[in-house]
Amino acid sequence: MIFGGRAMAPGGDETAPVAEQLPGNQQASESPEPSAEVLKEKSMEELVQAYHDLPLMDAHNHNAAGGKYRSMIPKWDESGVDRIVLFGAVSEPAAEATDETAWEAYQNNPDRFIPFTSGINLLEQAGLDKLRKNLERGYFGLGEIAAASQYSPALAQVEWKTEHPMDGILPEIYALCAEYQAPVLLHIDPLNGTPVSKLQEALAAYPDTTFILAHANVFNSPGNLEAWLEAYPNLYADFFAGFTVFNPESANVLEDFIPVIRKFPDRIVLSTDSGFGLSSEELAIEAMYRLIDKLDDSELAERIAYSNMNGLIERQPATRTQLEKIRGLGGEDDSGLDLATLSKREAGEWLIRNGKEG
User: Fold this and answer.
1) Could you report the per-residue pLDDT of 62-109, keeping only the tens digit for each?
2) Are residue 288 and residue 326 in the same domain, yes or no?
3) Sheet bearing 83-86, strands edge to edge
4) Is 191 in the same domain as 306?
5) Nearest partner of 276 among 63, 131, 87, 118, judged by Cα
6) What angle, rounded to 10 degrees, do the helices at 125-137 and 170-180 form?
7) pLDDT digit string (tens) for 208-229?
8) Which residues contact 41 (CB under 8 A, 6 or more apart)?
């Protein structure tokens, strides 16, 4: 997540990210209204209507915090957001509770919610054990986690953050995520200096791990993003279009990033970051549609809006814990199940349908 006012380090440049706060403790600066230029474009209603057949997934959403996801369901329905990667607090003990809230949402509606776990202590061995337990249980990824944060008034002091992306137990975490084919969503600030060099070290050392760089377009140049994606095929970019469209602190416009998106069509995912720093989450959803509209390419739009993130979910195999539960419920006698090829998603949905936690 990001914050609406820039926090510059001594000697920092315009690529340094803004400070960050968590849901429920937001103190964002006053959010701008859409510019006159934006108002001349299609309305939100027109965009939703134009792309109503396009599946749309929010790849980074904090609305497990405070159970806000419940009040967002009608808004997601109205705006055509089909699925949500859901978590809450970041790299602190409070995230353990929001992990459970995300799990509850998934249990009640597995077609819409994809739970990630962010309540992991990144500094102690117990965190690795907890992550394995959660991935075995059926969580689909790790994140958002604070892999580096120097300037955020919230994340710079969270109890479980690391100093850089190779600190603490992160190397062991990356190996574990590769074992489960689960992606890891990293918050990194600033996006320069040691945090970036250590990210590059991690990307090179763990080529079988899928890294998603959170809000990769925020206080970052298209050139930087292109270079990193070019160098590291295991890196994905979480694109928070709401920042680029509606936050006056952005030095770029959507058109600046479109060549990068076209060059790496399989490694960009779209997100709202729960509308952080904007006057509403709906603006962040609108910005996703504005990017889709500017692409003018239905195949590319479908990839970044849905298929890229969905592919990271669908590839994950059923876990040993899930398979043991299914066998215990007589799943081996279900002619519709092939336990040898069952995915984590399929296993979770079967368990939910059969009254056993997914």
Assistant:
1) 999 999 999 999 999 999 999 999 999 999 999 999 999 999 999 999
2) no
3) 57-61, 83-86, 113-115
4) yes
5) 63
6) 20
7) 999 999 999 999 999 999 999 9
8) 290, 293
